[in-house]
Write a structure and sequence with these properties.
This protein is of the alpha+beta class and about 140 residues long. It has four helices and seven strands, in the order ββαββααβββα. Helices cover about 30% and strands about 30% of the residues. A five-stranded antiparallel sheet has the order 2-6-5-4-3, covered by helices on one side. β5 and β6 form a beta hairpin.
Length: about 140
């Protein structure tokens, strides 16, 4: 186990396809997350979304509802035109950043994984992709600092 780390504790990479054209996929994703007040960066062929608050998560920790609601994660969606619509490359990861040790105590990986699953399923749903996850999939909460 390394003494210090900046690598994500949890990350997921997926490939999706949508019947929507690429610009519409990006518009829908950007709009869905921006409507919740998230940090959304829209480029020509991608959307990046940052959710949660590193400061609030570090303050409250994984053992409180406030901390878990503020898990710092990022979602990156890159699109390319395909014969039937859009091919999406999806990368989801925590942005917890610098820490001592692996960060894999007190159920942190499980909580981070669950949060990524919720946001990925939400994103898939807004563009019409069925991506099931066990349990409820809430809309992302609004984070204000």
């Amino acid at each position: 186990m390394p003494l210090f780390s900046t690598k994500p504790i949890v990350e997921k990479k997926e490939q999706w396809t949508s019947a929507l054209p690429p610009h519409e996929v990006l518009d829908v994703l950007a709009s869905a997350f921006a409507s919740h007040g998230e940090d959304v960066r829209r480029e020509k062929s991608s959307v990046e979304v940052h959710l949660g608050s590193n400061a609030l998560y570090r303050t409250w920790g994984n053992m409180t509802a406030e901390g878990r609601a503020n898990i710092p994660v990022a979602l990156s969606f890159t699109v390319a035109e395909s014969g039937t619509g859009t091919a999406l490359s999806v990368h989801a990861f925590d942005t917890f950043g610098f820490r001592v040790g692996s960060g894999k105590s007190f159920g942190v990986p499980e909580t981070f994984n669950r949060r990524l699953e919720e946001f990925l399923s939400y994103a898939a749903g807004v563009i019409g992709i069925d991506r099931p996850v066990t349990g409820p999939v809430p809309a992302p909460p609004r984070f204000n600092l």
